[in-house]
Amino acid sequence: MDREKYRNCMSGAMAGKTFSPGERKEEFCIAAKLCAKKASSREEAAEMCRNRPPKAPNKGEGEGCDTRVLKLAHCVAEAIDMTQAGNVNSIEMALANALLKCECNEVS
């Protein structure tokens, strides 16, 4: 199904209705299953939505941006190669290497 047809199907399924947040989430899931033709009936779509596994939490979910930044800054401060950072021309590379190590678990 192309995007335009899917978008029209979804907006038609949700338009003009009032839902609580929980109902909206459930209705959205049901409409998505029907519009994508993964289910042939509303009951089948509702069953699929009830039995789907929970989504994996996003990295850092539950933490504020400031907490994540402080953790990253602490890690970078420990990981930065001061011998490399001591050279003005290499400060960017030292910082990049420390960020890679902290965020991507890559060691150069």
How is this structure best described in words?
This protein is mainly α and 108 residues long. The chain has two domains: 3-51, no CATH class; 65-104, no CATH class. It is built from six helices and no strands. It has helices at residues 3-14, 21-35, 42-51, 65-79, 82-85, 91-104. Helix 1 packs antiparallel against helix 2 (21-35), helix 2 crosses helix 3 (42-51) and helix 4 packs across helix 6 (91-104).
Give the integer mean of the pLDDT values: 78
Radius of gyration: 24 Å
Number of helices in the DSSP assignment: 6
How much helix is in the residues?
55-70%
Number of strands: 0
* Overall tally of structural domains: 2
Compute the separation of the termini in Å: 45 Å
